[in-house]
Amino acid sequence: MSPILPPSVVTLDAVVPNGATMKIEACNNAFDASPAWEDITNHVRFNRGFLFTNTEKTAEQWGVDIRFVFEKGTATSQVIVNGFGGAFD
User: Fold this and answer.
1) Quick check: 78 and 9 in contact, CB under 8 A?
2) Beta strands in 1-89 (DSSP E)
């Protein structure tokens, strides 16, 4: 049974230049050998809450994890990450 988690919000303070791409993923089964990563990029980009759709885990406990993937692509300047934060509503 999945825990009832309120909407979560992830905020990002970063400079992502034109030509670079950003993907942000989160999971609620972080202790599993193969976590169910869910794409939350647009939720972060538009500062919107996110509800996990995953209801399965194989580990003993639930755990939330976040990962960020930046690809420079054709950008001529660097990606700068000043920090990030998270909260539950």
Assistant:
1) no
2) 8-15, 21-27, 38-39, 65-71, 80-88
CB 23 within 8 A of CB 41: yes
Per the CB < 8 A criterion, the answer to whether 59 and 32 are in contact is yes
- In 3D, which of 31, 40, 87, 37 has the Cα closest to residue 63? 31
User: Cβ neighbours of residue 61 under 8 Å, at least 6 residues apart?
Assistant: 31
Residue showing tokens 């934060």:
85
End-to-end Cα distance, the chain: 21
pLDDT digits (tens, 9 = 90+) for 4-36: 565 688 999 999 999 999 999 999 999 999 999
